[in-house]
Amino acid sequence: CKVVVFLMAISLFQTTECYADNPMVQTNYTADPAPTVYNGTCYLYTTHDEDTIVNNFYTMNDWRCYSSTDMQNWTDHGSPLSYNTFSWAKGDAWAGQVINRNGKFYFYGPMTRNNAGGARVIGVAVSDSPTGPFTDPLGKPLIANNGAQDIDPTVFIDDNGQAYLYWGNGNLYYVKLNQDMISYSGGIVQVSPKPANYVEGPWFYKRNNLYYMVYAGMTGGSENISYATSNSPTGPWTSKGTIMGSQNSYTNHPGVTDYKGNSYLFYHTGNLPGGGSYHRSVGVEQFKYNADGTIPSIPITKN
Ligand code: FUB
């Protein structure tokens, strides 16, 4: 195993809080962070901006996996899957997420199809291990509904066992996944009204009986991170404002988790040398929810 990140910055005033270097991965350009906790370890899945940018656009072929037991030192597990895992895909390995159910790990991620006009669709892959390898159980996309809009899946299993997959660029959609996690029942539902200034990158979870939808929003020239809450997994959603302002990459993308009693927001910027909108890098900040469950404004730290 290779340890990728390491400098520890200790606050002068809060010596118990230690942070990883930001950007936390300095060996690849990474984006679209998606954390999950399994067996006491925090696994972080990211996308991967290739060093060589083609056609001045996102050039992304595989997903990466890192893990940590202290949120400061991260082990690089390489690439557990790529668009080549899916026989029907031709590229654009964009923002994905992994969830554990009954000892199996389910990955959901968007790609462009190698037929049907190259539409962006969402695939599912399965593994017995959080670090892969993953295989495609369907041999076809799970979600192929809206052409360019089917990106950025986020998955959550509620306390009653019902799993939800939300996704979308421009509009927000969801389906109720079946227990097998590779099919769904009922139709695709478009969320209306969508949360304020919603663009893409939803991250869906529940805390203290309140459902959270954290997402990339737009009020200026580049994306911020905003959120909405609901008393129901299917809304209606109450917009709660922006928690992280625009950074130096056009996009941003949230991933939120609790780990060992603390709360963390993962995001991306263009803060590595050579960085920018197509060379992004994942960072992480520890934060504390307010007593009423609202999320404070979260500044980024750089080391
Ligand atoms: O990384 C490619 C796309 O950019 C993601 O799918 C969006 O969330 C945005 O970060």
Low-pLDDT runs of 5+ residues are 1-19
Q: Mean pLDDT score, rounded?
A: 92
Largest sheet properties: 6 strands, antiparallel
Distance between the termini: 24 Å
Give helix % range: under 10%
Shape descriptor: globular
- Ligand identities: beta-L-arabinofuranose
Count of helical stretches? 0
Report the β-strand fraction as a percent range. over 45%
- Report Rg: 18 Å
Topology (elements, then pairings):
Elements: E1 2-5, E2 9-10, E3 18-19, E4 29-38, E5 41-49, E6 62-68, E7 74-76, E8 81-82, E9 89-91, E10 97-101, E11 104-113, E12 120-127, E13 154-157, E14 163-167, E15 173-177, E16 184-190, E17 198-207, E18 210-218, E19 223-230, E20 238-244, E21 255-259, E22 262-269, E23 281-287
Antiparallel strand pairs: 1-7, 2-3, 4-5, 5-6, 6-7, 6-8, 9-11, 10-11, 11-12, 13-14, 14-15, 15-16, 17-18, 18-19, 19-20, 21-22, 22-23
Bound molecules: beta-L-arabinofuranose (FUB).
Would you mind describing this structure in some detail?
The chain has 303 residues and is an all-beta fold. It has strands at residues 2-5, 9-10, 18-19, 29-38, 41-49, 62-68, 74-76, 81-82, 89-91, 97-101, 104-113, 120-127, 154-157, 163-167, 173-177, 184-190, 198-207, 210-218, 223-230, 238-244, 255-259, 262-269, 281-287. The chain contains no helices and 23 strands. Strands 1, 4, 5, 6, 7 and 8 form a 6-stranded antiparallel beta sheet that branches. Strands 9, 10, 11 and 12 form a 4-stranded antiparallel beta sheet that branches. The chain has a 4-stranded antiparallel beta sheet with strand order 13-14-15-16, with no helix packed on it. It is globular. Bound molecules: beta-L-arabinofuranose (FUB). Beta-L-arabinofuranose (FUB) is lined by residues 31-32, 47, 58, 94-95, 151-152, 200-201, 251, 253.
